[in-house]
């Protein structure tokens, strides 16, 4: 019986081992190769896969046949000669077995990548029923790469090519499909669309390590990626230190075990060297969704992404350099075309209106990268939906760039007007454009919109804009000497300047914004005052460093105290407020930021309040009777312990209650309780960039800006403290 069981076990093992050997012997290719695929015409075609080490592999396409031998790891690659378009062909790969791919076309292959607006399917785009019925394009093929983030480069994806038909088109990338359809109709060649996209993703996960390595501004990201790579010295160094700590702990653990004494837990494995596995982490989508495609021959890439990075301004340009040049580096096809979509205007909640234009500026700058092209879509967006459903025009505009710049079609207008030069002409500015096509127009027939100019005595104001040839001349009765301009500089901007071909102009700004002193320009009362403190609020912190502190040298008695606060977010108008009041102290050390060291502590009403401001809603005027201040370095609660009229007992506002510790949160607030408003507030200054700053009432969880932690939002944040001598 034992002998029989042994014999059966031997036979079973032999069969299993034979099967494993057969599986291992099979020549196989990654899934980017498959029935119905499109291979890139006009250039060498890499074909690669796996077999037994040393196995002879033959790849045949039409009359061309190339042989190679699998290396020690079982990997092999050949490059087939460049092919021309023809009838559907068969790709055959032979080793110890034969793999055959049927219905293979030779044409134009494009990688389609990005976040949700690239992943967005035809089925959810405009006029789907009409588009579905017309989708009889058997020479357009599509493959959707599954969503797979990985910590290390992968060799394959589980995906299949499909033939475009009314039954399949609904799941295709809409931007990619309408792009490919236009190319197919114009070039009369097969089109292959490789759809590797994932909604909600940032640009960093799509970028290979080499992309970060070559952009100095992204050195921190490259360091993070290197730390997770076991082949790098950085990884090994951290791991060696950890092992030393672990050995030391192990020695202590043995002693504690024998002595029956308590022991601290073992040191935690360093988080910095753990694999990056989230779809939000750098390189993970490259590893799982792009690397398996490399080096599949293609013409170029289209890219629709930026919403998830839209707050980063010019840093996005650095990241686009990393992505584009990183992909080009790993593909080794030279500087292949990279065409991208400038994201559409959208409200983005209560976010500053200038944040999105700063991203548009970065996307404009990416055109400096060779062989790139940008589509502008602010005329076909949806301010209420981050996913505009008109993907037909998005795809068409991408195709226009490809037809003109990649495929060499002559006299094809493929871009809307782009900024060329700025010239001052008296109190006017002349903006000259490239890519005017048949001429500049207002696409809706109305006056040109979203042009603004700025002068030495104004902030940006709407401009009268008039088309003159390939230029737009800007002026405003409010601006005596224009210095700079901007166009479409708002997250909701849908400007109407385009060329006659219907392609819109991209948002931009030009000229130098003049330095202006709003205090002297806007507040006549201030001319009689003397400056005591000037504070750049970027220097807030536990220790306050004033730009100017004249409190030790000014010896005159004074009868009034004034504050001038100005705040400016990137690209927005300056907000300012001037407020003065009868002196509430004769000690100059106590009129600025009320730190513990200054011994300033005031919760008091103030007389004869004057207010000048450009912030909507602020009650302005002279001799106002509702003034009160809350100056202290400590904590405070919402209880109205001082019985300030109109103040809440449950909401932080213009009537709060000081609390311990005395050197805590900190409040520097001037109010008008009759108007039920905070005039200005500087709180939590010890937190530096997380301090609270505001003019007027906050619309957040408090009225006096407590807990807002918003100081980092401002490019300009300056406080001046003045007195009026007797």
Automatic annotation (TrEMBL):
Task: Decide whether keyword rRNA-binding is in the record.
Answer: no
Q: Which residues form the Sialate O-acetylesterase domain?
A: 108-209, 282-399
Which Pfam families would you find in this protein's record?
Answer: SASA
Gene3D superfamilies named in the record: Immunoglobulins, SGNH hydrolase
InterPro entries in UniProt: Ig-like_fold, SASA, SGNH_hydro_sf, SIAE
Q: Its Gene Ontology biological processes?
A: carbohydrate metabolic process
Q: Which residues form the signal peptide?
A: none
Keywords carried by this UniProt record: Hydrolase
Q: Which GO terms describe its molecular function?
A: sialate O-acetylesterase activity
**Sorted alphabetically, which PANTHER family does this protein's record hold?**
SIALATE O-ACETYLESTERASE
What protein name is recorded for this chain? Sialate O-acetylesterase
